Protein backbone atom coordinates (compact mmCIF):
# COMPACT_ATOMS: atom_id res chain seq x y z
CA UNK A 1 0.00 0.00 0.00
CA UNK A 2 2.80 2.38 0.92
CA UNK A 3 4.63 1.43 -2.27
CA UNK A 4 1.57 2.33 -4.38
CA UNK A 5 1.31 5.67 -2.56
CA UNK A 6 4.99 6.35 -3.19
CA UNK A 7 4.61 5.55 -6.86
CA UNK A 8 1.59 7.87 -7.06
CA UNK A 9 3.59 10.69 -5.49
CA UNK A 10 6.53 10.11 -7.85
CA UNK A 11 4.39 10.27 -11.01
CA UNK A 12 4.22 14.11 -11.09
CA UNK A 13 7.99 14.26 -10.55
CA UNK A 14 8.55 11.83 -13.40
CA UNK A 15 6.24 13.89 -15.62
CA UNK A 16 8.14 17.08 -14.79
CA UNK A 17 11.44 15.30 -15.47
CA UNK A 18 10.21 14.07 -18.88
CA UNK A 19 8.91 17.55 -19.78
CA UNK A 20 12.25 19.10 -18.85
CA UNK A 21 14.01 16.48 -20.96
CA UNK A 22 11.81 17.32 -23.94
CA UNK A 23 12.42 21.05 -23.49
CA UNK A 24 16.17 20.40 -23.66
CA UNK A 25 15.80 18.51 -26.94
CA UNK A 26 17.35 20.52 -29.76
CA UNK A 27 14.85 19.39 -32.38
CA UNK A 28 11.92 20.36 -30.12
CA UNK A 29 13.46 23.78 -29.51
CA UNK A 30 13.88 24.26 -33.26
CA UNK A 31 10.19 23.42 -33.84
CA UNK A 32 9.20 25.96 -31.18
CA UNK A 33 11.35 28.54 -32.97
CA UNK A 34 9.57 27.89 -36.27
CA UNK A 35 6.12 28.18 -34.71
CA UNK A 36 7.05 31.39 -32.92
CA UNK A 37 8.37 33.00 -36.11
CA UNK A 38 5.31 31.99 -38.13
CA UNK A 39 2.79 33.34 -35.62
CA UNK A 40 4.50 36.11 -33.69
CA UNK A 41 7.36 37.53 -35.79
CA UNK A 42 5.22 40.45 -37.01
CA UNK A 43 4.85 41.64 -33.44
CA UNK A 44 8.59 41.84 -32.76
CA UNK A 45 10.25 45.26 -33.12
CA UNK A 46 12.75 45.61 -35.94
CA UNK A 47 15.63 46.21 -33.53
CA UNK A 48 14.95 42.88 -31.81
CA UNK A 49 14.71 40.90 -35.07
CA UNK A 50 17.97 42.46 -36.27
CA UNK A 51 19.61 41.54 -32.96
CA UNK A 52 18.55 37.89 -33.26
CA UNK A 53 19.69 37.77 -36.89
CA UNK A 54 23.04 39.31 -35.93
CA UNK A 55 23.43 36.68 -33.21
CA UNK A 56 22.66 33.88 -35.69
CA UNK A 57 25.27 35.22 -38.09
CA UNK A 58 27.76 35.46 -35.22
CA UNK A 59 27.23 31.80 -34.32
CA UNK A 60 27.60 30.74 -37.96
CA UNK A 61 30.72 32.88 -38.45
CA UNK A 62 32.32 31.43 -35.32
CA UNK A 63 31.60 27.99 -36.76
CA UNK A 64 33.30 28.99 -40.00
CA UNK A 65 36.39 30.09 -38.07
CA UNK A 66 36.60 26.77 -36.21
CA UNK A 67 35.64 24.41 -39.07
CA UNK A 68 38.83 24.42 -41.22
CA UNK A 69 40.89 23.47 -38.16
CA UNK A 70 38.33 20.90 -37.03
CA UNK A 71 38.12 19.29 -40.47
CA UNK A 72 41.90 19.08 -40.64
CA UNK A 73 42.07 17.10 -37.39
CA UNK A 74 39.11 14.88 -38.33
CA UNK A 75 40.53 13.83 -41.70
CA UNK A 76 44.22 13.67 -40.76
CA UNK A 77 43.61 11.46 -37.72
CA UNK A 78 41.23 9.14 -39.59
CA UNK A 79 43.56 8.61 -42.57
CA UNK A 80 46.57 8.13 -40.29
CA UNK A 81 44.73 5.32 -38.51
CA UNK A 82 43.77 3.65 -41.81
CA UNK A 83 47.45 3.11 -42.73
CA UNK A 84 47.80 1.37 -46.14
CA UNK A 85 44.05 1.48 -46.73
CA UNK A 86 44.03 5.31 -46.91
CA UNK A 87 45.03 5.61 -50.59
CA UNK A 88 42.45 3.07 -51.71
CA UNK A 89 39.77 4.86 -49.69
CA UNK A 90 40.46 8.21 -51.38
CA UNK A 91 40.35 6.65 -54.85
CA UNK A 92 37.12 4.78 -54.18
CA UNK A 93 35.58 7.91 -52.64
CA UNK A 94 36.35 10.10 -55.68
CA UNK A 95 34.84 7.50 -58.02
CA UNK A 96 31.79 7.21 -55.77
CA UNK A 97 31.31 11.01 -55.77
CA UNK A 98 31.51 11.20 -59.57
CA UNK A 99 28.97 8.39 -60.01
CA UNK A 100 26.65 9.90 -57.39
CA UNK A 101 26.64 13.34 -59.02
CA UNK A 102 26.20 11.81 -62.47
CA UNK A 103 23.17 9.84 -61.26
CA UNK A 104 21.51 12.91 -59.73
CA UNK A 105 22.13 14.99 -62.89
CA UNK A 106 20.70 12.21 -65.06
CA UNK A 107 17.69 12.07 -62.74
CA UNK A 108 17.12 15.83 -63.21
CA UNK A 109 17.47 15.35 -66.98
CA UNK A 110 14.71 12.73 -66.82
CA UNK A 111 12.41 15.05 -64.83
CA UNK A 112 13.07 17.87 -67.29
CA UNK A 113 12.33 15.58 -70.24
CA UNK A 114 9.02 14.53 -68.65
CA UNK A 115 7.81 18.08 -68.04
CA UNK A 116 9.52 20.00 -70.85
CA UNK A 117 6.36 20.40 -72.88
CA UNK A 118 3.99 20.55 -69.92
CA UNK A 119 5.18 23.66 -68.09
CA UNK A 120 5.95 27.25 -69.00
CA UNK A 121 7.76 29.86 -66.94
CA UNK A 122 6.86 33.53 -67.14
CA UNK A 123 9.61 35.92 -68.14
CA UNK A 124 9.32 37.95 -64.93
CA UNK A 125 12.25 39.95 -63.69
CA UNK A 126 13.51 38.73 -60.34
CA UNK A 127 13.62 41.44 -57.77
CA UNK A 128 16.17 41.13 -55.02
CA UNK A 129 14.49 40.23 -51.76
CA UNK A 130 15.55 42.54 -48.98
CA UNK A 131 16.14 40.80 -45.68
CA UNK A 132 17.45 41.95 -42.33
CA UNK A 133 20.79 43.72 -42.10
CA UNK A 134 22.96 42.66 -39.14
CA UNK A 135 24.42 45.18 -36.72
CA UNK A 136 27.85 43.67 -37.35
CA UNK A 137 29.41 40.74 -39.17
CA UNK A 138 32.71 39.19 -38.10
CA UNK A 139 32.70 36.95 -41.16
CA UNK A 140 34.09 39.78 -43.26
CA UNK A 141 37.39 39.58 -41.37
CA UNK A 142 37.96 35.92 -42.24
CA UNK A 143 40.72 35.60 -44.87
CA UNK A 144 39.55 34.33 -48.24
CA UNK A 145 42.04 31.47 -48.18
CA UNK A 146 40.79 30.27 -44.78
CA UNK A 147 38.09 27.88 -45.98
CA UNK A 148 36.84 24.38 -45.27
CA UNK A 149 38.23 22.99 -48.53
CA UNK A 150 41.73 24.12 -47.52
CA UNK A 151 41.39 22.30 -44.22
CA UNK A 152 40.15 19.24 -46.12
CA UNK A 153 43.08 19.31 -48.56
CA UNK A 154 45.67 19.79 -45.82
CA UNK A 155 44.05 17.04 -43.76
CA UNK A 156 44.22 14.63 -46.71
CA UNK A 157 47.88 15.46 -47.42
CA UNK A 158 49.00 15.15 -43.80
CA UNK A 159 46.78 12.11 -43.22
CA UNK A 160 48.19 10.25 -46.22
CA UNK A 161 51.75 11.14 -45.18
CA UNK A 162 51.11 9.84 -41.67
CA UNK A 163 49.55 6.69 -43.13
CA UNK A 164 53.03 5.92 -44.50
CA UNK A 165 55.27 7.45 -41.86
CA UNK A 166 53.59 7.98 -38.50
CA UNK A 167 54.73 7.93 -34.91
CA UNK A 168 52.30 6.97 -32.15
CA UNK A 169 52.98 10.23 -30.27
CA UNK A 170 51.88 12.40 -33.18
CA UNK A 171 48.76 10.31 -33.81
CA UNK A 172 47.85 10.57 -30.14
CA UNK A 173 48.20 14.35 -30.36
CA UNK A 174 45.85 14.39 -33.35
CA UNK A 175 43.35 12.27 -31.43
CA UNK A 176 43.44 14.58 -28.40
CA UNK A 177 42.95 17.62 -30.63
CA UNK A 178 40.00 15.93 -32.33
CA UNK A 179 38.44 15.12 -28.95
CA UNK A 180 38.80 18.77 -27.91
CA UNK A 181 37.07 19.89 -31.11
CA UNK A 182 34.26 17.42 -30.43
CA UNK A 183 33.88 18.92 -26.95
CA UNK A 184 33.54 22.43 -28.42
CA UNK A 185 30.84 21.29 -30.84
CA UNK A 186 28.83 19.27 -28.31
CA UNK A 187 29.04 21.61 -25.33
CA UNK A 188 28.97 24.98 -27.10
CA UNK A 189 27.77 25.04 -30.70
CA UNK A 190 25.32 22.18 -30.18
CA UNK A 191 23.50 24.17 -27.51
CA UNK A 192 23.18 27.18 -29.81
CA UNK A 193 21.39 25.41 -32.69
CA UNK A 194 17.85 26.65 -31.85
CA UNK A 195 19.10 30.22 -31.41
CA UNK A 196 20.85 30.11 -34.79
CA UNK A 197 17.74 28.67 -36.44
CA UNK A 198 15.53 31.33 -34.83
CA UNK A 199 17.53 34.27 -36.18
CA UNK A 200 17.76 32.90 -39.70
CA UNK A 201 14.03 32.11 -39.72
CA UNK A 202 13.27 35.72 -38.80
CA UNK A 203 15.37 36.82 -41.77
CA UNK A 204 13.57 34.44 -44.15
CA UNK A 205 10.21 35.73 -42.95
CA UNK A 206 11.29 39.36 -43.27
CA UNK A 207 12.62 38.86 -46.81
CA UNK A 208 9.31 37.37 -47.97
CA UNK A 209 11.01 34.16 -49.05
CA UNK A 210 8.12 31.86 -48.17
CA UNK A 211 5.49 33.90 -50.03
CA UNK A 212 7.72 34.88 -52.94
CA UNK A 213 8.61 31.25 -53.44
CA UNK A 214 5.11 30.25 -54.50
CA UNK A 215 4.30 33.34 -56.61
CA UNK A 216 7.22 33.17 -59.07
CA UNK A 217 7.99 29.61 -60.07
CA UNK A 218 5.20 27.92 -58.13
CA UNK A 219 4.47 24.90 -60.37
CA UNK A 220 8.15 24.36 -61.18
CA UNK A 221 8.92 24.49 -57.47
CA UNK A 222 6.28 21.86 -56.67
CA UNK A 223 7.62 19.56 -59.39
CA UNK A 224 11.25 19.83 -58.31
CA UNK A 225 10.35 19.57 -54.63
CA UNK A 226 8.48 16.31 -55.27
CA UNK A 227 11.35 15.11 -57.44
CA UNK A 228 13.87 15.85 -54.69
CA UNK A 229 11.67 14.14 -52.12
CA UNK A 230 11.45 10.98 -54.25
CA UNK A 231 15.23 10.98 -54.73
CA UNK A 232 15.87 11.40 -50.99
CA UNK A 233 13.48 8.55 -50.21
CA UNK A 234 15.37 6.41 -52.72
CA UNK A 235 18.74 7.24 -51.11
CA UNK A 236 17.52 6.54 -47.57
CA UNK A 237 15.88 3.32 -48.79
CA UNK A 238 19.23 2.12 -50.14
CA UNK A 239 21.01 3.32 -46.98
CA UNK A 240 18.45 1.50 -44.83
CA UNK A 241 18.65 -1.70 -46.92
CA UNK A 242 14.95 -1.17 -47.81
CA UNK A 243 13.89 -1.97 -44.23
CA UNK A 244 11.13 0.40 -43.17
CA UNK A 245 12.20 0.60 -39.53
CA UNK A 246 15.82 1.32 -40.45
CA UNK A 247 14.82 3.95 -43.05
CA UNK A 248 12.70 5.80 -40.50
CA UNK A 249 15.42 5.54 -37.87
CA UNK A 250 18.00 7.16 -40.15
CA UNK A 251 15.62 9.90 -41.26
CA UNK A 252 14.68 10.59 -37.63
CA UNK A 253 18.34 11.06 -36.72
CA UNK A 254 19.14 13.50 -39.51
CA UNK A 255 16.02 15.55 -40.28
CA UNK A 256 16.79 18.25 -37.64
CA UNK A 257 20.10 18.85 -39.44
CA UNK A 258 18.21 19.44 -42.68
CA UNK A 259 16.21 22.11 -40.86
CA UNK A 260 19.39 23.83 -39.70
CA UNK A 261 20.73 23.75 -43.27
CA UNK A 262 17.45 25.23 -44.55
CA UNK A 263 17.59 28.20 -42.22
CA UNK A 264 21.34 28.87 -42.44
CA UNK A 265 21.78 28.12 -46.18
CA UNK A 266 25.24 26.75 -45.43
CA UNK A 267 26.32 23.12 -45.74
CA UNK A 268 29.66 24.01 -44.18
CA UNK A 269 28.16 25.67 -41.10
CA UNK A 270 25.86 22.66 -40.67
CA UNK A 271 28.72 20.17 -40.98
CA UNK A 272 29.37 19.51 -37.25
CA UNK A 273 25.70 18.67 -36.73
CA UNK A 274 25.65 16.53 -39.89
CA UNK A 275 28.62 14.54 -38.59
CA UNK A 276 26.95 14.00 -35.21
CA UNK A 277 23.72 12.83 -36.86
CA UNK A 278 25.40 10.49 -39.35
CA UNK A 279 27.50 8.95 -36.54
CA UNK A 280 24.24 7.41 -35.30
CA UNK A 281 23.51 5.85 -38.71
CA UNK A 282 26.87 4.35 -39.70
CA UNK A 283 28.49 1.23 -38.26
CA UNK A 284 31.80 2.99 -37.54
CA UNK A 285 30.98 6.41 -35.98
CA UNK A 286 34.40 7.91 -36.77
CA UNK A 287 33.79 7.15 -40.46
CA UNK A 288 31.43 10.12 -40.77
CA UNK A 289 34.15 12.51 -39.53
CA UNK A 290 36.17 11.66 -42.62
CA UNK A 291 33.50 11.26 -45.30
CA UNK A 292 31.19 14.20 -44.50
CA UNK A 293 33.95 16.88 -44.53
CA UNK A 294 35.54 15.37 -47.62
CA UNK A 295 32.27 15.28 -49.59
CA UNK A 296 30.31 18.34 -48.43
CA UNK A 297 31.70 20.65 -51.13
CA UNK A 298 31.72 17.99 -53.85
CA UNK A 299 28.63 15.86 -53.45
CA UNK A 300 25.79 18.40 -53.59
CA UNK A 301 22.75 16.49 -54.77
CA UNK A 302 20.37 19.41 -54.29
CA UNK A 303 22.47 21.64 -56.55
CA UNK A 304 22.74 18.96 -59.22
CA UNK A 305 19.01 18.23 -59.36
CA UNK A 306 17.60 21.76 -58.92
CA UNK A 307 20.06 23.70 -61.09
CA UNK A 308 19.92 21.21 -63.95
CA UNK A 309 16.12 21.08 -63.82
CA UNK A 310 15.78 24.87 -63.76
CA UNK A 311 18.36 25.14 -66.53
CA UNK A 312 16.24 22.89 -68.74
CA UNK A 313 13.09 24.89 -68.01
CA UNK A 314 14.87 28.13 -68.84
CA UNK A 315 15.82 26.60 -72.21
CA UNK A 316 12.12 25.97 -72.75
CA UNK A 317 11.26 29.50 -71.65
CA UNK A 318 13.58 30.97 -74.29
CA UNK A 319 12.35 28.58 -77.01
CA UNK A 320 15.44 26.39 -77.12
CA UNK A 321 15.02 22.73 -78.10
CA UNK A 322 15.45 20.08 -75.43
CA UNK A 323 19.16 19.09 -75.46
CA UNK A 324 19.90 15.80 -77.19
CA UNK A 325 22.18 13.15 -75.71
CA UNK A 326 25.16 14.22 -77.85
CA UNK A 327 24.93 17.69 -76.29
CA UNK A 328 23.98 16.50 -72.85
CA UNK A 329 26.78 14.01 -72.23
CA UNK A 330 29.64 16.54 -72.65
CA UNK A 331 27.69 19.00 -70.46
CA UNK A 332 27.18 16.38 -67.73
CA UNK A 333 30.81 15.27 -67.83
CA UNK A 334 32.19 18.78 -67.39
CA UNK A 335 29.51 19.59 -64.80
CA UNK A 336 30.51 16.58 -62.68
CA UNK A 337 34.19 17.49 -62.91
CA UNK A 338 33.39 21.10 -61.94
CA UNK A 339 31.69 19.88 -58.76
CA UNK A 340 35.14 18.94 -57.47
CA UNK A 341 36.21 22.62 -57.59
CA UNK A 342 33.18 24.43 -56.18
CA UNK A 343 33.04 25.93 -52.68
CA UNK A 344 30.23 25.29 -50.20
CA UNK A 345 28.86 28.82 -49.77
CA UNK A 346 25.49 30.46 -50.32
CA UNK A 347 24.98 30.39 -54.08
CA UNK A 348 28.75 29.97 -54.56
CA UNK A 349 28.79 26.89 -56.78
CA UNK A 350 26.59 28.43 -59.44
CA UNK A 351 29.17 31.10 -60.30
CA UNK A 352 31.53 28.35 -61.46
CA UNK A 353 28.79 26.30 -63.13
CA UNK A 354 27.11 29.09 -65.14
CA UNK A 355 29.93 29.20 -67.77
CA UNK A 356 29.27 25.49 -68.37
CA UNK A 357 25.59 26.22 -69.10
CA UNK A 358 26.66 28.98 -71.48
CA UNK A 359 29.24 26.90 -73.34
CA UNK A 360 27.41 23.59 -73.69
CA UNK A 361 23.71 24.54 -73.58
CA UNK A 362 23.95 27.96 -75.27
CA UNK A 363 22.78 30.08 -72.33
CA UNK A 364 22.69 33.83 -72.94
CA UNK A 365 23.62 36.33 -70.19
CA UNK A 366 19.91 36.93 -69.61
CA UNK A 367 19.26 33.22 -69.16
CA UNK A 368 22.24 32.93 -66.82
CA UNK A 369 20.93 35.78 -64.67
CA UNK A 370 17.59 33.97 -64.26
CA UNK A 371 19.38 30.73 -63.31
CA UNK A 372 21.51 32.64 -60.81
CA UNK A 373 18.42 34.30 -59.30
CA UNK A 374 16.62 30.95 -59.03
CA UNK A 375 19.67 29.38 -57.40
CA UNK A 376 19.84 32.13 -54.78
CA UNK A 377 16.08 32.06 -54.25
CA UNK A 378 15.92 28.30 -53.70
CA UNK A 379 19.25 28.02 -51.91
CA UNK A 380 17.76 27.07 -48.50
CA UNK A 381 15.97 24.07 -50.04
CA UNK A 382 18.97 23.14 -52.16
CA UNK A 383 21.30 23.30 -49.15
CA UNK A 384 18.94 21.25 -47.01
CA UNK A 385 18.76 18.61 -49.74
CA UNK A 386 22.56 18.53 -50.01
CA UNK A 387 22.91 17.86 -46.29
CA UNK A 388 20.20 15.19 -46.09
CA UNK A 389 21.47 13.42 -49.21
CA UNK A 390 25.05 13.45 -47.91
CA UNK A 391 23.85 11.81 -44.72
CA UNK A 392 22.28 8.95 -46.67
CA UNK A 393 25.18 8.67 -49.13
CA UNK A 394 27.71 8.44 -46.30
CA UNK A 395 25.91 5.33 -45.03
CA UNK A 396 25.81 3.89 -48.57
CA UNK A 397 29.50 4.63 -49.13
CA UNK A 398 30.40 2.96 -45.84
CA UNK A 399 28.73 -0.22 -47.09
CA UNK A 400 30.63 0.03 -50.37
CA UNK A 401 33.91 0.65 -48.60
CA UNK A 402 33.48 -2.17 -46.07
CA UNK A 403 32.72 -4.57 -48.94
CA UNK A 404 35.79 -3.48 -50.93
CA UNK A 405 37.99 -3.56 -47.83
CA UNK A 406 36.87 -7.07 -46.96
CA UNK A 407 37.79 -8.23 -50.48
CA UNK A 408 41.04 -6.27 -50.73
CA UNK A 409 42.46 -6.88 -47.29
CA UNK A 410 41.11 -10.33 -46.41
CA UNK A 411 43.82 -12.78 -45.33
CA UNK A 412 45.10 -15.16 -47.97
The SSE string, one letter per element, is HHHHHHHHHHHHHHHHH
Pairing-aware structural class of the strands and helices? Answer: mainly alpha
CATH architecture of the domain at 94-143 and 195-408: Orthogonal Bundle
Q: How large is the share of residues in beta strands?
A: under 5%
Q: How much helix, percentage-wise, in residues?
A: over 70%
Mean pLDDT metric: 78
Beginning-to-end CA distance, first to last residue: 68 Å
How many β strands by DSSP? 0
> Within the CATH hierarchy, at the fold level, what is the topology of the domain at 94-143 and 195-408?
Proton glutamate symport protein
Can you tell me the CATH class of the domain at 94-143 and 195-408?
Mainly Alpha
Largest sheet: none
Radius of gyration from CA coordinates: 23 Å
Q: What is the helix tally? A: 17
CATH superfamily of the domain at 94-143 and 195-408: Sodium:dicarboxylate symporter
Low-confidence stretches: 343-348
Describe this structure in words.
The chain has about 400 residues and is mainly α. It has a domain at about 95-145 and about 195-410: Sodium:dicarboxylate symporter (Proton glutamate symport protein). The protein is about 75% helix and about 0% strand. The chain has 17 helices and no strands. It has helices at about 1-25, 25-40, 45-80, 85-115, 150-165, 170-185, 195-205, 210-215, 220-240, 245-265, 265-280, 285-295, 300-315, 325-340, 350-360, 365-375, 380-410. Helix 10 crosses helix 17 and helix 13 crosses helix 17. The longest helix has about 35 residues, at about 45-80. The relative contact order is 0.14.
Amino acid sequence: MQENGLKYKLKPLKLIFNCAKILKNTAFQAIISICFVLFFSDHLPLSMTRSFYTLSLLIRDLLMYVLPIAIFFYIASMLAELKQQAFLLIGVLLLFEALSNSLSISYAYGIGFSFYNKINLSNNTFQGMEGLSPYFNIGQFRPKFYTVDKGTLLGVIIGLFLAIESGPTFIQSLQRSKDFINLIFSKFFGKLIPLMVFGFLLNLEKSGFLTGLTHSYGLAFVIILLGILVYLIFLFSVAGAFRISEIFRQIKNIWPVGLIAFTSSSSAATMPFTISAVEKNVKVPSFSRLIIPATTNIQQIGDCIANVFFGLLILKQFNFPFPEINIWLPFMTVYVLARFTTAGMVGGAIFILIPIFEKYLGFTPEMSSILLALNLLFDPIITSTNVLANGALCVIFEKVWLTIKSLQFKPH
